[in-house]
Amino acid sequence: MSGIMILLTVDFFGVAVALPQIGKDLHASTETLAWTVNVYLLAFVSPMIAVGRLADIVGRRKVALVGVVVFVAASVACAAAPSDLFLIGARLVQGVGAGVIFATSLSIVNNAFPLDERPKALGIWSGVGLAGSALGPLVAGILTQEASWRWFFFLNVPIGIAVIVISLAVVEDSRDESYTGGIDWAGFVTLTLGFAPLIFGLQQGAQAGWSAPEVIIGIVVGVAILVLFVSLSSMATSRAIKSLLRPRASSMSRWTACAERSCLRSLSTPSSFLKMRESINSSCSTSFLMNKNSRWICSMV
């Protein structure tokens, strides 16, 4: 999945080089240009924990490929942006796709290799990402000067298509086989919506000051939604425990329904934590049924 890291790091570290020309062509102010980066980071981080847990449930490769499709489609929208506001909206969607990709790619590599081969695989994954961070400004500078900044975003299209094709060919899907419950959509939504205003407030605090109204409102609203998330998760857990204490039903179907309710979990307990500035991920021990050669191809995808 290292190809995914190239896709993300080249775009993220290169866009700063293209910003002056973008501002000139779209007649955007410096503050507006800053939001093309801020909104990307906001969308990148907000859903990360919830998406990581969702991938454990429905399949990591499946979720990662959805993220690649979203990221590539948003890159096309960025390249065709007719105005600064349109570009900001496209960067928001692009950030969501990037967050989904990052939340699942390391977990896929981690689960594809046995413990003794994992350090080498993770080294390839992180090394390719570092190479992308160095190539990003260079590629952006050349394309912006020799062609157009729009071609910098179009560059994500062939890379993304190659990643999708190779992933479908050599990467097998994996999930948390021990999980038997459904998806807690209420938890997913409240966790994501809670992080969004909280991160916004923290972002603006360094610029506008911690006493600014938008900073205080963002932090308060974010914390309030996260408290709601914790409350909903506690209620779900309480219902599951009560279902275990009820007398055994005479009907097999009622017993099965009770057992299913007792297995409900919240998305608040992901098997992988991914932070913006760290490349650390803990994941389930499910491994792919792949031979040794295909495993190393997987690490390069």
Integer-rounded radius of gyration: 21 Å
Coarse structural class: mainly alpha
Number of H/I helices:
12
Secondary-structure element series: HHHHHHHHHHHH
The portion of residues forming beta strands comes to under 5%
Largest sheet: none
CATH superfamily of the largest domain: MFS general substrate transporter like domains
Average pLDDT reading: 74
Distance between the termini: 4 Å
CATH class of the largest domain: Mainly Alpha
Low-confidence stretches: 240-301
Tell me roughly what share of residues is in helical segments. Answer: over 70%
The dominant shape is: globular
Tell me the count of domains: 2
CATH architecture of the largest domain: Up-down Bundle
CATH topology of the largest domain: Growth Hormone, Chain: A
Structure summary, number of beta strands? 0
Write up what this structure looks like.
This protein has two domains: about 1-180 and about 290-300, Growth Hormone, Chain: A; about 185-260. It is an all-alpha fold and about 300 residues long. Helix 1 runs parallel beside helix 6 (about 120-145), helix 2 (about 30-45) packs antiparallel against helix 9 and helix 4 runs antiparallel to helix 5 (about 85-110). The chain is about 75% helix and about 0% strand. The longest helix has about 35 residues, at about 215-245. The protein contains twelve helices and no strands.
